[in-house]
Amino acid sequence: MNCIIIDDHKLSRDILEKHISKFEELNLVAQFENPTEAIPYIKKNQIALIFLDMEMPEMTGMEFLEFLNDSNILVILTTSHPEFAIDAYKYNVSGYLLKPIKFDQFGHAIKKVLEKSVQKVEYEINDDYIFIKEDKSIVKINKNEIFLIECIGDYVSVFSKNKKYIIHSSMKAMEKRFSPKEYLRTHRSYIVRIDAIDDIENDTIAIGERLIPIGKTYKSEVYKRLNVL
């Protein structure tokens, strides 16, 4: 698993490098002092995992997560401030390490990442319907009944007319399985069925009583797709 470190403190990078070297599954390919230096490298190389500091000059960790958007790259955040945790997990990060990073803490995070990298999504998709594994049974759902898909952490909630189903997946994987002719990504955490939209006000989509935000990075594409005059 190719990984990089983005951190403006050399000592922090050195500690992470030492920890990484003890896992044969990890291959540290580069280190950067800030995200702006890392972006060109990421665009040209296959990176599976990023160790990302939260507080850096030029570009913060949060801003960099916004740039990554729905990338398949896994991210483990590193910071001295636990208060960032709640906001960080909105970006579906794979881990959160508090500095100074101890090896047992690091090892636990890596174990979760490695497990996640080999897990398979427990559903199969057809053009007109999907099968979702629920407890010991497999449920068939017509896709025209699904009006909303929401991501929370490592899980995705699929909302049909009659029920909500929770599966272990990512928004990137879900987006590939639902036709862009019928479904629209409106936010890092939401995909909506276009013909289920009731109205839009203040960059918020209403589907029945549900209110779904339009993320600023998706706004232009959303209004373009909806052919707003």
Relevant terms:
single chain; 229 residues; alpha/beta; 5-stranded parallel sheet; 5-stranded antiparallel sheet; 34% strand; globular
Estimate what percentage of residues fall within beta strands: 25-35%
Overall 3D geometry? globular
Compressed to H and E, one letter per element, the order equals EHEHEHEHEHEEEEEEHEEEEEH
N- to C-terminal distance = 47 Å
What's the number of helices? 7
Mean pLDDT: 86
| Total number of beta strands | 16
Helix content: 25-40%
Side-by-side strand order of the widest sheet? 2-1-3-4-5
Cα radius of gyration in angstroms: 19 Å
What does the largest sheet look like? 5 strands, parallel
Low-confidence stretches: 119-126
- Please identify the structural class as seen in this structure: alpha/beta
Structure commentary:
By secondary structure, the protein is α/β, with parallel strands linked by helices. It is built from 7 helices and 16 strands. The strands form 4 sheets. The chain has a 5-stranded parallel beta sheet. A 5-stranded antiparallel beta sheet has the order 11-10-9-13-12. A hairpin with a 3-residue loop joins β10 and β11. The protein is globular and about 55 Å long.
